[in-house]
Amino acid sequence: MTDSKTFFAGLDIGGTTIKSILVDDSGDTVGDMVEVRSHVKEGYEATFAQLELAMERLAGAVGVRPSAIAGIGLDVPAPSSAGVIWGQANLAADWVGCNIRDEFSKRVNLPVTMTNDGNAAALGEYAVRPNLSSGLLCVAPGTGLGGGLVLPSGRAYEGQHGLALEVGHISVPFLEQDGTLPSCSCGLKGCAEAWVSLVALRRRLGIELAQEKWADHPLATDGASIEEKAFQLRDYASQGDPLARHLFQEQANILGHAIADLVRVFDPGLVVIGGGLAEADFRDDYLDWLRDGFSKRAWPMYRHSPLDPTVEITRFQWASGGDSAAALGMACAACDMFG
């Protein structure tokens, strides 16, 4: 391959690794994903060196010089506005207040566009659906509950300050068994993330195991920590275990309720569910449970067309972009912006 073409790099900064993808000026993926250590806890300068290493390896793998890269899309696992990091999250302290986009652009002498990881994942899911004619709302249950919205134009909706689509922190009216709202990691109570996340799953598992009806359950007699037990729930659910399926059904119902409110505001047409459950054996059941929660909250016209009941107004799909989705999304964003 020669340097006669221009290329665009997508760099997805995670807590432990940087995933990177190269696309050409047509937006087509070139070569395979490259992964390097991120070093985010050592500061942004240390991470910049790893970003450059990833770019060198991307270019080298397809036989071009790094100078053939004409622009970069970068995503960060933290809230940011116009390139400036607003919160530390899992980063070193020196990231906060720094304009990462502009500093890295100066370092590599290339234009850089930057967003958060939720928006990047949504852009990636949009990119792997080239014939999509609607918008796309991506919601990803994981350690927390992230998300992003891509407009029909292919651009992510970020809001005035880059702070839009904090989907995990919309309020849902579900109470604990003692009648209280659960606390969220953000400091508020009653957030969707307080019900739909790995952290929430640990809490709910602990509450359920304290009940007499689960006294003989293997997880009740297991001496492992609640964190270790929660990690086992997906396997238990795949085997049809009533406790595990109850907990995932509860989460899916509540997530569907939250999505109904988001759909009422944004009307995206397609909702993509990301996160680790996309690979679960019981994912069809999970999506049915989610649709059930959605149907209980959404107005009929957000479910099916009032003019033709066979037309589904809001469609649901599992994420299909895999581990490289965010990097691909940012590479395509750079291609659109700088190509």
| Helix content percent band | 25-40%
CATH topology description of the largest domain:
Nucleotidyltransferase, domain 5
What's the total count of β strands?
A: 11
Give the number of domains. 2
Radius of gyration: 21 Å
The global form is globular
The CATH architecture category of the largest domain equals 2-Layer Sandwich
Overall pLDDT score: 95
User: Strand order of the main beta sheet, please?
Assistant: 3-2-1-4-7
CATH superfamily of the largest domain: ATPase, nucleotide binding domain
Give the structural class: alpha/beta
The largest β sheet comes out as: 5 strands, mixed
Low-confidence sequence ranges:
none
Oligomer: single chain
Distance between the termini: 19 Å
SSE run:
EEEHEEEHEHEEHHHHEHEH
Number of helices: 9
What is the CATH top level name of the largest domain?
Answer: Alpha Beta
Strand percent estimate: 15-25%
Task: Describe, in plain words, how this protein is organized in 3D.
With 339 residues, this protein is an alpha/beta fold. It is 36% helix and 19% strand. The chain has nine helices and eleven strands. It has helices at residues 44-61, 100-108, 117-127, 198-209, 218-221, 226-238, 242-266, 283-297, 325-338, and strands spanning 7-13, 17-24, 29-37, 69-76, 80-81, 84-85, 112-116, 135-141, 145-150, 269-273, 315-318. It starts with 6 loop residues before the first strand and ends with a helix.
